[in-house]
Recover the amino acids of this structure.
């Protein structure tokens, strides 16, 4: 097969790239149709006409395949520059706009729904948020706004917990005031709450306490 190791050098690399790209296209269709839990890597490999071990070789497993096949980008750094006193509103605007346009096949929504029943999905989701959201926001709070590193990490944890709670209450298990609010009202409420977490009195530290 063109995908196996050989001595051809550059032609082999071209074949590997084509195989990798084909896997991403096929996997994207499977994730959209069956969700994260319902997608089987063997079925993806068979549909792409390759052996399942190539998914492990190229992507490390289903979580890595999902991350690349869906090309998820929250683009948090784009909302960080600007007045510190409106950072919460800028983040809230991006969060609400993103989720209000999501449909049932949205890959991040599928991951959220799967995280409660799949340890693999939960791990992948945690890694995704750490890389895409927590790291850039923490760096901004510490490097640009001068927040001590540990305090920045605690504030980021609070922000992430609030956003995930809002997303779950409105889009995963829609019930109550958060689910019933208009997008504008939700944006204003979330922006206010986020701003309190970002520049209000620091929360109790999450680390450094035994017992």
């Amino acid at each position: 097969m063109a995908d196996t190791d050989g001595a051809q050098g550059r032609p082999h690399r071209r074949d590997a790239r084509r195989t990798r790209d084909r896997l991403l296209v096929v996997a994207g269709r499977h994730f959209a149709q069956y969700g994260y839990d319902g997608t089987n890597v063997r079925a993806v490999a068979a549909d792409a006409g390759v052996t399942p071990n190539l998914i492990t070789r190229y992507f490390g497993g289903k979580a890595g395949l999902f991350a690349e096949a869906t090309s998820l980008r929250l683009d948090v750094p784009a909302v960080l520059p600007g007045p510190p006193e409106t950072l919460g509103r800028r983040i809230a605007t991006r969060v609400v706009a993103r989720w209000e346009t999501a449909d049932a096949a949205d890959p991040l929504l599928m991951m959220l729904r799967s995280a409660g029943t799949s340890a693999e999905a939960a791990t992948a989701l945690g890694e995704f948020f750490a890389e895409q959201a927590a790291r850039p926001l923490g760096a901004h709070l510490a490097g640009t706004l001068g927040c001590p590193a540990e305090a920045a990490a605690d504030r980021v944890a609070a922000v992430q917990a609030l956003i995930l709670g809002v997303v779950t209450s409105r889009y995963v298990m829609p019930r109550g005031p958060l689910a019933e609010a208009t997008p504008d009202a939700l944006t204003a409420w979330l922006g206010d709450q986020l701003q309190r977490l970002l520049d209000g009195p620091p929360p109790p530290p999450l680390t450094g306490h035994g017992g």
About this structure: The first helix runs from residue 10 to 38. The domain at 10-70 is CATH 1.10.10.60 (Arc Repressor Mutant, subunit A). The chain has two domains: 10-70, 76-199.
